[in-house]
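We close this part of the discussion by returning to an individual protein. Part of our work consisted of pairing the sequence of a single chain with a tokenised description of its backbone. No coordinates are needed to read the tokens, only the vocabulary itself. The amino acid sequence and the backbone structure tokens for this protein are reproduced below:
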Amino acid sequence: MKKRVVVTGMGAVTPLGNDVKSFWDGIRAGKVGIGQITRFDTTDFKAKLAAEVKDFVAKDRMDFKSAKRMELFSQYGVAAALEALEDAGIDMKKEDPFRVGVIVGSGIGSLQSMEREEQRLLEKGPSRVDPLLVPKMITNMAAGNISIITGARGKCTNVVTACASGTNSIGDAYRAIQYGDADVMLAGGTEGSVCPIGVAGFTSLTALSTCEDPMCASIPFDKDRSGFVMGEGAGVVILEELEHARSRGAKILAEVVGYGATADAHHITSPIEDGSGAARAMEDAMKEAGITPDQVEYINAHGTSTYYNDLFETKAIKIAFGEAAEKVKINSTKSMIGHLLGAAGGVEFIVCVKSILDGFIHQTVGTRETEEEMNLDYVIGAPVEQDINYAMTNSLGFGGHNATLLIKKYQE
């Protein structure tokens, strides 16, 4: 029999705050963490806004020497992981380290290190390139650094599925515990790519909003949406086998009960038009949980504020939920913190858990008016307070990756 998997700790670094409490306080207050890009001069850039992490000091969250050997995405991931471990109350000295694993994904890794060392190569020659370029840059280093710093010696991998990386990572960690590969998993996503080549690349793809008003730039499901706003940060959670959590008297925040992952097999950037791939991921998650669509009260949508994503995700929800699609509450956290790319799924999973705990569904901030085909309840204008037993989170990634997680209010 598959084992039950619960959530016992959470950690976050976000544009609204560098821990779960400050992040969730910002969400509840309807704050927007989007602003003018401060990391570089945007004079020649069409996109001027990003959702940057503010006031993050790596040496305050981890060993200074270790931090110097990490790029931002790894620093964010380690900081979130350490917070999650502390929140869970796990003492690694009392754990079998080979039963504690890490699956933390990043969609990109470090573009900054590539920018920096390419410039050094051109100006000073190949012998001057940083010898740590590769281990700083590659996407698995967030998971590797988390393992090194925490002492977790079990399964340690990372999932790279673009903007679905965080959700797939949590899903794979869930499976690892279900089938007995681990007792505890640190899982989620991290990203830190607000830099010239990152912004220029997404702009050339016409994926980014060029709006210069932070309150109107990321407006998922709105008829005037024009692209996403690049964000950064990390979301890491502690997943734990239920009996293991009970045996140590852990506080249990929620239970993971379903996971669906599919491919569109359609296009490198656009979701399939009929929404069938994302719909199947949602259907598979509900099937595993043994529930019907009318039992899901809340969906945290991928909701990027791009034309095709929001339209096709709406179609997917209608396929998966049928008549129940008209009743389910849907929102997009990206309206407040932009698109955290590979970290989005981790942070949005945390939003689902907090929503269940508080009975609070945040509004899709900035969104005012939708289109004819997008006629679902996107929680526009004000948040909703209601009891939530089941929450769903969706992530869609370039390459046609679809991932869905289903989270349940914990009951004995």
Remarks:
- Residues 259-405 form a domain with the Peroxisomal Thiolase; Chain A, domain 1 fold (CATH 3.40.47.10).
